[in-house]
Amino acid sequence: MAKENISRRQFISRSALIGTAGVAGGVTGSGIMLSSCSSEAKSKYEPLQSEIPVIIPEMGDKAIDGKPLRAGIIGCGSRGSGAVNNFLDAADGITVAAMADIFEDRLETLRKHLREKKKMEVPDSKIHYGFEAYKKVCDDPDLDMVIIATPSIFHADQARYAIEKGKHVFCEKAAGIDPVSCRTFSVAVKQAQAKGLCLQTGAQRHHQRSYIESYRRVREGMIGQITGGVVKWNQGAMTYRKRRPEWTDMEYMLRDFFSWNWLCGDHVIDQLVHNIDVFTWFSHLKPVSVVGMGSQQQRRTGDIFDNFCLDIMYEGGVRVNAQARQIEGCSNDVSETIIGTQGVWTSKNNEMSIRDHDGNLVWKYDSEAEKAQYKQRDPYVLEHMDLINHIRSGKSMTQEAETLVVSSLTGAMGRESAYTGREYRWEEFLVSDLSLMPEELHLGNIKDFATKYVPPKMGKPAPDMN
After folding, report:
1. CA dist 116 to 106, 112, 119, 121, 311, Å?
2. CA–CA dist 197, 204 (Å, integer)
3. Which pTM was predicted?
4. N or C end: fewer C-beta atoms under 10 angstroms in the chain?
5. Cis peptide bond prior to 418, omega within 30° of 0
6. Closest CA to 203 of 185, 218, 179, 183
7. What is the DSSP string of 420-463?
8. Phi and psi at residue 289, in whole multiples of 5°?
9. Which residues of the chain register pLDDT less than 50?
10. Beta strands of 1-138 (E only): which ranges?
C-alpha cells in the first residue's frame, strides 16, 4: 500500500482543510463564487464570514461539449455499476475503456451491461483482477480519468495512486475511515491541486439543486450565525450477504463489506458521513471533540454497530447531535437541521426550508420550479456533470474533496469514541497512527476469524455489588 510522504505533524501545518484558510479565493472550475449576496440578503441579512469561498456549481441538463474522455472503473459492484451509469448519463463523448475488480463475476456482470445496454466493448487487454488491479488501470496511458467505487478502506491509496499517474479522479465517499487513510487522501488532494487535476467525491448532496440553494441561503446569513445542529441517518435494517460454503473468510467479508468495520468504517461513516458532510459544508467549521455511544442490538452479521449517537463540538462552541441507526421497527429519519441565531434550516422529508424561531416560514425551496427548468435532476448524475465540466474547461476541482476529508475524520472520531466510550479530540485524532488496513491482503481464510472480528464493547464491566 502507498505510504505517506509528509509527516503527521507536517500534515497539521500544511493542510488547508485542517487549518482555517481553506482553498484560495476566486472561482474554482465552472462554478460561481458568491462574492456578494442577493439584494434581499444585502437588505436583511449579514453574510457569514469565512476564508473558504462559497462555490455554486453551474449545471444544466448535460455537461459541456469538449474532448472525448476515456474512463476506467475500479470496483464493479453495485455502486461501481451505478457510478458508471451516472457517468455515462452526464455527457456526450465519454466511454468506459478499462475495468478492475477483485472478483471476476462482478466485473463481467458490469462488462455485459456495458456491451448490451451501452454498446461499449471493453477488450480483454483492459480487464484486470486482484487487489493490485487498480494500478494497471491507473497506469493505462489511454485513460483520462478513473472512477473509484471500491470499499472505503481502499479509496485513499487508490485515489492517490491515480493522481500520481496524472489521472482525473471520481472517488466515492468516504475519503478515508481512519486518520492514516484520511491523511493519504489529503495528500492526493494536494497533488491534484499542484497538477491541475480534478478530484471529485461521491458526496452527491453537493450537487443536489435543493441543497445547493439552501447552502447559498445559509451562507448569505438567512439563519444568522450558526449555533448548532442535528444530523440523522436513522433507517431500517440493512440487507446483508449470506455466506456461501465456498467462500473464504476474506471473500465473505469483501462481498459483504458493509458489515465489517475495517472495510467500510461502520455505518457512521458509510451513511452518516453524508449528513455530517452537509454540516461541514454549510458551516465551514471543523470539530473540536466528539463523545459518542452505540451498540449492536439487532444486527445479524459483521462486527459493526447498528446504532450510534454522537455529541460533536465544533469551533466556537457550536454543538451538533449526530444519530445513525439501522434497526427495523423504529422511527426513521434521514435529515439535517442547522440552527442559527435568527432561524433554522432543515431538510426533513426532503423539503428544504428556513423558519424563524417562532416557526414562521421564511424560505422554501421550489421543487416545482426546478422540475420546470431542468430535465436532469439526479444528483448522482449532476456530480459527474460538474466533474466533466471542470475537466473539459481545464480547471482543477478539489474543494469538495477537502470538505469530505474533514467529514470522514469526524465520522471516524465519532466511531472510535462510541467503540471505547472515550472523548476524542480533533488535534490528537488527526495525527494518530490508527489504521484499519490489515497487514496483509489475500483471498484466503483468516486465523482466529470467529473471535477476531466481533463487535467492540465500550468501557469496562460494572463492578460487583454487595
Report:
1. 16, 6, 6, 9, 49
2. 20
3. 0.91
4. C
5. no
6. 185
7. H---EEHHHHTT-------S---SS--TTHHHHS-----S-PPP
8. -155, 160
9. 1-30, 33-38
10. 31-33, 55-57, 69-74, 94-101, 127-129
3-state secondary structure of 399: helix
67 contact partners, CB below 8 Å, separation of at least 6: 93, 392
Note the pLDDT of residue 40.
Answer: 54
Write out the three cell numbers for 9: 505533524
pLDDT at res. 75:
98
Residue 173 grid coordinates: 465517499
Whether residue 310 contacts residue 322, with contact meaning beta carbons closer than 8 Å, is answered with yes
3-state class (DSSP) for residue 336? strand
Predicted local confidence at residue 463, as pLDDT? 84
303, 455 Cβ separation under 8 angstroms: yes
| Cell of residue 183, nine digits | 491523511
Q: Evaluate whether 184 touches 8 at the Cβ level (below 8 Å).
A: no
Tell me the three cell numbers of residue 59: 449545471
Tell me the CA end-to-end span of the chain in Å, nearest whole number.
53
pLDDT for 461 equals: 80
Instruction: Give, in order, the Cα–Cα distances in Å from 303 to each of 52, 85, 268, 307, 453.
Output: 38, 32, 13, 13, 6
Residue with cell 458493509: 258
Q: Pick the closest to residue 283 from 407, 172, 414 (CA basis).
A: 407
303, burial (CB in 10 Å: exposed 0-12, middle 13-18, buried 19+): middle
- Grid coordinates standing for 268? 457512521
**Is residue 94 within 8 Å of residue 88, measured between CB atoms?**
yes
53-to-28, 193, 216, 465 alpha-carbon distances in Å: 9, 16, 11, 58
HSE (CB half, 13 Å, CA atoms) of 464?
1
CB 67 within 8 A of CB 392: yes
Name which of 285, 362, 292 is nearest 324 in CA terms: 292
Q: Which residues contact 178 (CB under 8 A, 6 or more apart)?
A: 265, 412, 432, 434, 435, 436
Answer yes or no: are the C-beta atoms of 299 and 306 closer than 8 Å: yes
Q: Which three cell numbers stand for residue 109?
A: 456482470
Q: Where are the beta strands (DSSP E) in 194-278?
A: 199-201, 226-235
